[in-house]
Amino acid sequence: MSTTPGAPPSTVPPILTGSEAVLDFFCLALAHQDCETDVNYVCGSDATTYLNPCEFEKARCAYREVHLKHEGNCTGDPFNP
Prior knowledge:
The chain is α+β, with helices and mostly antiparallel strands. Helices cover 30% and strands 11% of the residues. It is built from two helices and three strands. A three-stranded antiparallel β-sheet has the order 2-1-3. Strand 1 (42-44) and strand 2 (49-50) form a beta hairpin. Residues 21-76 form the Kazal-like domain.
């Protein structure tokens, strides 16, 4: 619904919800930062091993359906991420 006084009511839902807007703001800021090169593997729900949480978050900004599965690499083998 429109909250502007005098404006006709709207039945169009908002484009973004609060959590989506926050994630968009976070992603915009993260896009302008370089991730550290430290190795701290994390496994995404897409079965991809990311070098560190920063790289995972950047991927999550592009593919919002990806979630953190667990810390460490996806293979469970510390020598084969």
